[in-house]
Amino acid sequence: MFFSTLSTLDSEPVQWKQCKTFGGSMDQVLDAQFGNSHSSLKLTVAYSNGIVKVYEILDPMDLKNWQLQAELQNVTDSVTKFGKASCLSASISWNPQRSDTFPASFLLGLNSDTPQLNSPKVWEFDQDHQRWLPVAELADHDDKGDQVYAVAWAPNIGRPYELMSVATLKSISIWQMASDPDIDGRLSVEKVATFPCHNNQVWQMEWDMSGMTLATTGSDGRVKLWQSNLNGVWHEQAIIEPTT
Amino acid sequence: MPGLLTGSGDSSSLVPFSPELNTPAVYPLHHGLKHPITPRLSISWSSGNSLRVSVFRSPETTNTIDDEVEVGGKVVELKLSGEDVHSEVNDAVRWRRIVYGSVSPFAHLQNKKNAMAALSELRHSAPSQVEWSKYVLEYSKEINSLLGNRKSSPSSLIEDPKTVLKIDEEPSSLKAAWELLEIFYANKQSQSWIPEQLVDWLTDYDSLFSGQVPTVHLRLVEFQAQLITLQTVENVAAYWQAISSALSVGWLDIVVKLLRLHGSYQLNQLGSRETENGLVEAVAVLISKMPRMRVDLPDGKLGECCYNKSDFMKAWEKWRAQITKLDCSAYWLQCSHNQTKENLKNLLQIMLGNINTLTNATCHWVELYIAHFLYIRPFTSGLESMHVLAQKCIQLKPISTPHKLMSLIIGILGENTEVILAECSKSFGPWMIAHATELLTAGNIQAEILLKEERHNLGGISIEESHRLVYAQVLSSHALTWQIAPIYLISCMKHGVGLLEILLYKQPVYHSQVLLKNIEICRLYDLDSVSANAMKIVGMHHWKHGRKGSGIFWLQQARDEVRLNRIAQKLFDFVGKSISDESFEQWEGLIELMGTESRTVGGLEFLHKYRDFKKSLQQVQDGVVTDAARKAGESLISIMKNPSTPQRFWLPLLYDSLKLLTWQEGPLLNVSQCNLLLNKLQESSVAKLRPDFVEVGLPPHALSSVRAALATNLGRAILEE
After folding, report:
1. Which interval of the chain is the signal sequence (chain B) (predicted)?
2. CB contact under 8 A, A230 and B35
């Protein structure tokens, strides 16, 4: 698995050149997502052994030089460590907020054989102690071990809460997360909608630029659009079906 | 979010929502690929509402030889919402003209609103409603004029007597809907003229209903086509039907024109059909003298205008008395043409407001409704009684699936803002609703509360704001309209700026046109950090692709110290290594660029001086000339004294100058100069301990050899002095 960056010349087709390779010979890379920070470029990479690594670039002019910032397992209790897990897929979604005044954070969910690793968790960078901490978990008590296929963090253009979506083997759910932590330092979360999947495995979830519409694709080969009405009730708004 | 409003009925919730009923619409995605395709679709949102869907062919099939030229996949771009309006105004150019044209009235009105709010705050008084409704009306008229010209195309000088109906360009229901809102909400001064305004409205837009239901307009169009072939019209039922229908909805000029086609007007018939002709003419005259409760009538329209109620009452009574008198006249007995007699009497019944006759003459309930205003209840006023009347008309002429304009009328008459919003957004799209909220809220406190109240369900914004955001999203989806989205976004108090920032970030700024537009917008709305980021992105883009000069320029514009310092470091290293190199010339320009600005960030101007110093040092190395060496020594001192010289460069500079410090023919520096350099050396060795120290890549003995050289020079200088 490699990572490359663009290199173009005027009026010529875009060319890509390889800058850096991540991952060893044993472990596959399942997902890799760039963060939004302007001051230091970060990259989260999830591997098939259940390990997630955060890399960052120290010199903004040198895209070949990545440094490992942290290595983590997707568990709420950072003390517990699990042995090698086997993951089929992973989904990482960075907080789309571009401002550097907020701590960097991302949402991570896995589809693995270790139930504790699966449920989507929000990871936030603690600047004071230079470490990543899980600050919220997006799963009901009974569903914590469910395999997660996709997660997506919606852009926030001014809502007092964050909006996220999670697709598991059972359902698509939409979550609200408080923007400010409670007294325990945790961010309270609330599930605002659940839609059963009916054997349709979700492959991809994307929010539009305002965070008002969620688009999903899945094994049924259709694109679905989800929106909330003026009462805040989420529903399936439209289905797009390929046809010749 | 808007566009999801469903029809109302339950008043307890804002918009009733029942998941059972709301089954999602299925839209086909035409991709044009040969089957089979894989179920694996890939999606990516572009700017605004534009969703890109990648469709792939099944890998098994793409390998066969026949398919070699076939493409393996395709990206289809979907634009969500706003489509209804496009079907309304199906010409993209015309539609864009409306979109562009509505910007300035909208912005103007927002400015007025802000100015009035500021003024009333200053005076501690509520803003004047009268003044505000004046602005809203101006705004409404401007928008209305964008939606196309209606009303009377200039009539030709020689009129074809057989052309009873002029068919202008097809009116748009968007304009029809806007005018309805204008009549009921914007035009406060003429509230008492609403019935007559509705008569005019139907005259202009009855044709719009024709697609869905039979209309008087359609009846007339059909009759006109037939007319050419008819000899004696008065024997044809369609002729009388056309007349009575036109009369029932008040198209008096058409009625009179049709009546004058009556056979009894022909010169050769005049003698034998004198009474008959007299009756026809009497009816035509009565029709043309019909009193109308309105200020004026457009050219060519018939009727007698009465400005106030009492005048109208008198005229109305008199007119009705004349009709009754004619109805009872003995001349009817002398009229031998039976059809003429029957049908003229029928027309009198229409004018006398006979409900059965009117119901027969009209085609759908709106026409019957208008007929009521004209002939039965000319003084109907107040939305409640108008609503009751409408309900009665619907009962008399029920329609299974109401036309969108009918639903809008019912919503307006029912004073149900939610229904109006739902109809507007469902039938006329985001443009309509974003612009119409100003009309709906003008002087209507209930609607204002509904539309402007901040709602937790919407993430803390009002319905009005949410509609504007949706419209701005639609604008953002197109390369030709995204630039006007900021005007709407900036009117959104809560989420507008947030979305504007994202919109600007989404633009491909490495196209210089887009970048300049971006910067302009940022300057307009004080979004300095956004434009700085755009410039950083562009700077890096150019730098990465070998356009170093442009890269530095934009990074300087962005005041990006971090990256400029990195570039300075690179240039420094380069200048240090390749001063004699021929390729130096290409770097010289960059140093020039970085050194010319007086307040350059990151001490880049130092490089300029450094280059000169290196050049003189080069001369020293080439030929051993004391004069040149002395000059080089002087420029070393000046460069070391200069506060713009970054500290991290001090040691490398001194190390480069070892030869000067140990000059054979005698010391080049005097005691104080030596002391200065020793101090600097001391400082830079202390700086090594600091965490932000940058290693320059000198040999490990550099510090000690410089120190030794300086000590030697100092010793010799002391001796000389």
Report:
1. none
2. no
